[in-house]
């Protein structure tokens, strides 16, 4: 990969300069944080906001007069890497959803292993199994869920593959010993801390070949992201877990049902926030944790009971649902206006995080390649970082 330092510096400068556009919590805002954007954002109705949300290019064009630097931050496009020749499903892949299977096949299409393979955070080891078949190299899959390990081991035995599971915790210190110099290490969709460890352990062991597709950047150990690379530490953006979720706020694989549920969830969360301010007399936004989607098939009163329970509040004796839901409508519009701006930084921030990993590996003496390994319709988490060293 050509020198990415200038691109990383440019991203760092612009993300820091415009941190007020994206390092904020839309739910906590009661007014639009950018008076200069009021005229353009407030004339959009909710349908127009939703439409712009699903067309990032149009959103960039709309904001260009006020944020001219944004389009330059979107100018870099990661190269398209190798894709599988076909997505035919062998008998053993029964039960793997189509999109997942396409991701596995596309990831594998980029691997030519000269050494034994280590699969990091393997699940049932579908990728490891395919690689064991295609690469004629022994595969060790690390996974901590015993049930998944057992299922993966059973399949490997049935197919008489050199594929074994190491059932253990990737975050335990002893996991470092799994990395060897003569090895191809792979990690498909390893979450934040898991893939940070993968990179650090591999670099320390001098592992020859790495392939990683990162996901869930926010699942880190501390509350703040500590950049991996020297360059990243020089341009530390002070990223919180909330900031690190920004690249994940992209819904490309959802249909109408997903959109409807998101609308309902947004409305209920905001309606509850209005209610809790009244109940507590507080002026601050009270974040609610993630919840199972089946809660959305009940009614708002059930949701309020659940939320009050989570926050240690007494459930109000009588609840005027209509009142709170109407109050949420105005705030939902405001949240969508703010998200329209904030989401313009989704790609630059993900690129910054990816380049932090790329620069770390470069600093460690690796030759590195960054690209997209699968179609966006299979998953929005489709970046692949590959690294080799002699
Ligand atoms: C997002 S899934 C990816 C699975 C597989 N690589 C794939 O793409 O289908 C992450 C996997 O990591 C495993 N995992 C999570 N934390 C772990 C840990 N601390 N040690 C080992 N495995 C872990 C989970 O059980 C899960 O199977």
Automatic annotation (TrEMBL):
<dbReference type="InterPro" id="IPR029063">
    <property type="entry name" value="SAM-dependent_MTases_sf"/>
</dbReference>
<protein>
    <submittedName>
        <fullName>Methyltransferase</fullName>
    </submittedName>
</protein>
<keyword id="KW-0808">Transferase</keyword>
<keyword id="KW-0489">Methyltransferase</keyword>
<feature type="domain" description="Methyltransferase">
    <location>
        <begin position="105"/>
        <end position="221"/>
    </location>
</feature>
<dbReference type="Pfam" id="PF13679">
    <property type="entry name" value="Methyltransf_32"/>
</dbReference>
<dbReference type="GO" id="GO:0032259">
    <property type="term" value="P:methylation"/>
</dbReference>
<dbReference type="GO" id="GO:0008168">
    <property type="term" value="F:methyltransferase activity"/>
</dbReference>
<dbReference type="InterPro" id="IPR025714">
    <property type="entry name" value="Methyltranfer_dom"/>
</dbReference>
């Amino acid at each position: 990969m050509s020198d990415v330092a200038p691109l990383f510096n440019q991203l760092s400068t612009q993300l820091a300069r415009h941190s007020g556009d994206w390092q904020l919590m839309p739910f906590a805002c009661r007014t639009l944080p950018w008076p200069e954007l009021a005229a353009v954002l407030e004339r959009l109705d909710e349908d127009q906001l939703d439409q712009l949300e699903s067309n990032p290019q149009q959103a960039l064009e709309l904001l260009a007069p006020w944020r001219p630097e944004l389009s330059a931050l979107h100018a870099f496009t990661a190269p398209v890497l190798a894709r599988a020749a076909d997505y035919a499903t062998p008998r053993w892949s029964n039960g793997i959803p189509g999109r997942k299977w396409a991701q596995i096949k596309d990831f594998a299409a980029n691997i030519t292993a000269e050494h034994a393979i280590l699969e990091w955070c393997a699940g049932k080891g579908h990728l490891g199994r395919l690689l064991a078949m295609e690469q004629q190299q022994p595969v060790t899959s690390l996974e901590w869920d015993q049930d998944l390990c057992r299922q993966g081991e059973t399949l490997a035995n049935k197919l008489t593959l050199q594929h074994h599971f190491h059932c253990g915790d990737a975050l335990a210190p002893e996991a470092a010993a799994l990395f060897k110099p003569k090895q191809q290490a792979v990690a498909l969709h390893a979450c934040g801390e898991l893939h940070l460890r993968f990179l650090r352990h591999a670099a320390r062991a001098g592992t020859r070949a790495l392939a990683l597709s990162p996901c869930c950047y926010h699942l880190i150990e501390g509350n703040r992201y500590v950049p991996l690379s020297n360059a990243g530490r020089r341009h530390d953006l002070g990223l919180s877990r909330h900031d690190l979720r920004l690249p994940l706020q992209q819904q490309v694989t959802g249909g109408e049902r997903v959109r409807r549920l998101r609308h309902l969830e947004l409305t209920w969360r905001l309606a509850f926030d209005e209610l809790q301010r009244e109940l507590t007399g507080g002026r601050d936004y009270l974040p609610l944790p993630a919840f199972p989607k089946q809660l959305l098939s009940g009614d708002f009163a059930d949701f309020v009971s659940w939320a009050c329970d989570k926050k240690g509040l007494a459930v109000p004796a009588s609840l005027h649902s209509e009142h709170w839901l109407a109050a949420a409508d105005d705030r939902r519009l405001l949240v969508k206006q703010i998200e329209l701006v904030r989401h313009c930084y989704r790609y630059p921030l993900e690129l910054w995080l990816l380049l932090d990993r790329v620069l770390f590996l470069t600093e460690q003496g690796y030759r590195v390649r960054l690209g997209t390994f699968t179609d966006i319709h299979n998953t929005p988490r489709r970046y692949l970082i590959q690294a080799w060293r002699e």
